[in-house]
Write a structure and sequence with these properties.
binds zinc ion, about 45% helix, single chain, about 110 residues, alpha+beta, DNA Primase, Chain A
């Protein structure tokens, strides 16, 4: 997954940054995962959608700073960013995830060709 990020076009990198800036982590992740289990100034914590545990909230999303939208699960070690989350959660490829995020959560962003 990480090699893809190293080779993507600069415009696409800008678009990803714009997506992470414009999409509010709290509204986005609650729309995907339901209620927040715990919350701090910098993180929101949910039950993890990527492993089977309905009791212990381990899925942690950073909501501020340069790691805004980064997620990690301390139980199953799932980790990534907004795009990877959207891919994994909805079973989409990279382009599908980007397009879906734009049309559903950031429709004011334009894609430059
Ligand atoms: Zn997990």
């Amino acid at each position: 997954m990480h090699t893809k990020y190293n080779t993507i076009h600069a415009d696409l990198r800008d678009l990803i940054i714009a997506l992470k800036c414009s999409i509010d982590p709290h509204s986005y992740y609650t729309s995907q995962l339901g209620s927040v289990c715990k919350c701090t100034n910098h993180q929101i914590i949910f039950l993890c959608p990527f492993h089977d545990d309905r009791k212990h909230p381990n899925f942690t999303v950073t909501i501020t700073g340069q790691y805004r939208h980064s997620f990690i699960c301390f139980a199953c070690d799932a980790k990534g960013d907004l795009i990877l989350f959207h891919q994994k959660f909805h079973n989409l490829n990279f382009s599908e995830a980007i397009n879906d995020l734009i049309s559903n959560y950031a429709s004011h962003l334009q894609i430059a060709n």
